[in-house]
Amino acid sequence: MDTGGIVTGLRELLGAQLVAYLGRVSNTRSVREWADGSRVPGADVVQRLRTSFYVAGILSERERATIVQAWFQGMNPELGDKSPAALLRGEPLVVVGPIVVAAARSFIAHG
């Protein structure tokens, strides 16, 4: 899937504000521009958005969008009481990506 499709899907599931946060921008205009292809985020941001999209997909198979949004924003004991969104935004993706994916799978399996 291309970046525009990923951003559009994330925006539908998580809302533009949370996508902007994950994409390390301060406004939703950038998110709209990414979705329509008039602007391209940097490679690091694209990878963070791809990982976020993958995690959101895992969660949305069993949960509605409001639960997926809450999961991304809430403190998670499997993640050292940090939110998945904060980790995906601020930490090295190679480190936190697999950990966040595992936490999402655990949530689906155990609630």
Count of individual beta strands: 0
Q: How many structural domains are formed by the residues? A: 1
Distance between the termini: 29 Å
Helix share bin: over 70%
| Overall form | globular
Please tell me about this protein's structure.
It is a single chain. With 111 residues, the chain is an all-alpha fold. The protein has one domain (3-110). The protein is built from 7 helices and no strands. Helix 1 (3-14) crosses helix 3 and helix 4 packs parallel to helix 7 (93-110). The radius of gyration is 13 Å and the shape is globular.
Task: Describe, in short, the structure shown.
By secondary structure, the chain is mainly α.
Entry keywords:
globular; 111 residues; mainly alpha; single chain
What's the layout of helices and strands?
Elements (H helix, E strand, L loop, with lengths): L2 H12 L1 H7 L5 H9 L6 H18 L4 H9 L10 H7 L2 H18 L1
